[in-house]
Amino acid sequence: MSAVPQSFLSDPATLRRGRVELAGVWRGSQLAHAAALRVQPTGHAALDAQLPGGGWPRGALAEVLQPPHARHEWPLVLSALAGAAAHGPGRIVLVAPPCEPFAPVLQAAGLPAWRLCWIDATAAEAAWACEQALRCRDVLAVLAWLPQARPEALRRLQLAAAQQQALLWVFRSDAALRQASPAPLRLAVRGVPEGLEVRLVKRRGPPLLEPLLLPAHAPPLAQVLAAARARRAAVQAPAAPPRTMRWSPGHALDRLVRAAG
């Protein structure tokens, strides 16, 4: 580590501030600078504004904590995945997902379903499978559902992601909120009537006291889903009642009956 230049220590302005300012040194009271981080925009402007570098970190673990049985993963990360897939090759690996993603929704958001690779792993195998995927150069991003992951397993995943500069999300129950984690970014997410409430539990920067409110779907996807709901409503709408016509002598049906007789 290089020594602090003597000029800094003798500078009156530095002495008055009580601290030494060095280029490239990140301070805990400030968000880490974009120049020092590789990030992927989230697709949510409000979230980008509060994340170091302005997006999801590449080469680092992003831990998402949510209530059991909640399914907030895709609204949170889908826009980022679509953006990453549009600008780079590689597969997106899903490790032990609780359910199969709906391909038309992915396609509507700009993420071709063929870019996904599904790994059906047990709880004991999931962390190992995730680590192996991260070490593969053909992998663009990894999404792993690891409800029982231990801190040492998460640390290994953090190191593996850093080596390949891959995107990595680990989804866990919010019961792990009080547990220690090596993840440089931790978010607690829950659904509210207005959309998604996101609380930044940990980031490279000062704490954020107020939660963020994000839409449940990105704008293009929301438009597609709204159109789909409208189509379903049109199909399910009751048919128009038959038109009623008054009968009178000489009506076409009356003439048809007489002709048949």
Automatic annotation (TrEMBL):
Highest taxon in the source lineage: Bacteria
Under the heading InterPro entries, the entry gives: ImuA_translesion, P-loop_NTPase
Alphabetized NCBIfam families for the sequence: ImuA_translesion
Write down what this protein is called: Translesion DNA synthesis-associated protein ImuA
- Provide the species name: Paenacidovorax monticola
Q: Which gene encodes it?
A: imuA
